[in-house]
Amino acid sequence: MASESGLYWCETAWLGSALATPHVLVQVEAGAITGVLSGVECPAKATRLAGLTLPGLANAHSHAFHRALRGRTQVGNGSFWTWREQMYGLCERLDPDSYFRLARAVYGEMAMAGITCVGEFHYLHHGAGGTPYADPNAMSAALVAAAEEAGLRITLLDACYLHGGIGQVLNAQQRRFSDGDALAWAVRASEAVEALSGPAVRVGAAIHSVRAVDPAGIEVVAEWAERHDAPLHAHVSEQPAENDRCIEVYGVTPTALLAERGVLRRQFTAVHATHLAGADIGLYGAAGSTICLCPTTERDLADGIGPAWALRDAGAHLALGTDSNAIVDMFEEARAVELDQRLASQVRGLHDSVSLLRAATVQGHASLGWPEAGRIEVGAPADLVSVRMDTVRTAGASAHTLLETAVFAAGAADVHHVVAGGRVVVSDGRHCSIDVAAELGAVIGELVEGFS
Ligand SMILES: [Zn+2]
Description:
Layout: E1 6-13, E2 21-29, E3 32-38, E4 47-55, E5 57-62, H1 80-91, H2 96-112, E6 115-122, H3 138-150, E7 153-160, H4 182-196, E8 201-207, H5 215-227, E9 232-236, H6 240-250, H7 254-260, E10 268-272, H8 278-287, E11 290-293, H9 295-300, H10 308-314, E12 317-320, H11 330-345, H12 353-360, H13 362-367, E13 384-387, H14 402-409, E14 415-420, E15 423-427, E16 430-431, H15 436-447
Parallel strand pairs: 1-4, 5-6, 6-7, 7-8, 8-9, 9-10, 10-11, 11-12
Antiparallel strand pairs: 1-2, 2-3, 4-13, 13-14, 14-15, 15-16
The protein binds zinc ion.
């Protein structure tokens, strides 16, 4: 990612407090913020950013290729497990070249939605039948290249995936996900760190789930993450069936199993955490771990509503992800956390707009290993996301409720200007280098030809 300099004047900006701040001048040098002044008029040489400017949004959980399923999985009925069969069908059509083109377009869509950093939870590692490509990290490299072209920072969360379920062998489609054993995963992941890390790229680790990695393997991945000082993520308790099987075989919940094997810590992020026991919530709180909620996917897949409020009150941090990319809109993810809790609790206001913005920015970045990002302050990467406050969705907000209007009413289409690492990625609502809609249409059309 090119590091650039510039001067930006924000009509209003969120600097982390309870209210938006008017007339903020942000100075950027070599991709980082070097000055923030409020209450100043717009200098002639500054780029004027209308509306409300936020720090870059962090999408802490994505599977880029799921974007090609959008709409197609909404026909008929079923469950998470029937949806998964459709997702596996799509996997078979991807190789490093097609995945690069798909991910480049998907990350372009994310950039247009104000996402400046993506956590790609990546498990589609190998070729047909599980045979490695000539470069065993060819798929990872494709994702990293796609993010770079789209202008996003990326944390590649390299997922270990060894089993088809607890006590089950891999099926034919799942073989592409597996390195054979956890040590082979660790070798390949270490090579990914060497080959792919850069100013805009970090490599972290992921345990796909307690379904896909056995306890000994979980320990290997956790130890690798600790040794590399890397973020560690895992899908946890998205469905009751995972809990039931885990308790049946191991006698404990997935969260307790992960805790026993040394996973829970500050740099750990549990994705979903929808069906937790009370003791699980306390474990995350005590560890200061992050919970990545993906509300639009969780409702799409009929997962349920997780205990977001109880987790936060216990001391866990919340982050947000678009996961299956059925929708790419961090405003929708943010407000869904609160609105889902309202449905479950019949109480309003458990998560205020500032706490939801923190989940979408600074806490998401921390979950992905960029604790310095997600804030408009000196020393942070220059990620600025400007949201129009004069559209049909946002017009009429008062100065005191700009943040509430943005979180509870704005959408991805209201993002009009995005700076990521000092580089202008989106201007006047258009991606600066990618015709995103055309590329999405072309590559998805090619991938789903003949696919129901
Ligand atoms: Zn996921």
